[in-house]
Amino acid sequence: MAEQKTNVMRLLEQAGVAYTPHTYEWDGKTAPDGATVAKGMGVDPGMVFKTLVAKGASGGYYVFDVPVEASLDLKKAAKAAGEKSIEMLHLKELFPLTGYVHGGCSPLGMKKKFPTVFDETCILYDTIYVSAGKIGFQVEAAPGDLIKASEAITADIITED
User: E-strand spans in 9-146?
Assistant: First the structure.
């Protein structure tokens, strides 16, 4: 794959954040799930974070980043967002709201800035991976840098196994 620079990479550079770009193969039709992406890049799935978008009871939108093999706990996520409840965004609403497609959603560079929460497990790693805003592309950076660049907070937001 030719070296392509995504908007997420440009934003990280503008913020002075050191990152490493990564690519992975996909069939060009269906976005692979996060565990497949992690395996394709040969990294621990706990280090690869998927970006989920949800809507709160108040009507506000929120972004949650969780390890690819974990599930978002809606009650914990609502608490972290200061909402009574939240529900996942319908797939058809994702692109018009964020500018990203399913499988290429990043916590950085959405059309509008939304409150963002990373699962607290991100700090267990020196670096983590998030989507670079395009299917087939990931960026690897220090969790603290990604949290700062996305103006995020951390909280326990995943379900217990």
Answer: 20-23, 49-56, 61-67, 86-88, 116-119, 128-131, 137-141
